[in-house]
Amino acid sequence: MAAAFTEWTFSRVVEEIEGIIEDKKQVKHSQIQKRIESCLDNDTIMAKFKAECDHQFLDFPLPVLIQSGGDFAVNKFQVDSNDDKL
Which of 10, 48, 64, 81 fits 29 for a cystine, CB–CB 3.0-4.6 Å? Predict the structure, then answer.
């Protein structure tokens, strides 16, 4: 179920990020992070995830972290995306 949820979620995230890139928008990583996290907290959106159990049983141990470009700071203790633009 975790793999199915990851695939379902990333397909939506990748689609949104591709749209930002194609439209040449300047969107901060932190704004994308907040949108994704708000979707994960939205019962209406999460109800669209069809699985064998209720989506409310899903637990997210780490926050969403968005990074792009050549300057990465992969750190499991970093909890927020930076304000660099995608």
Answer: 81
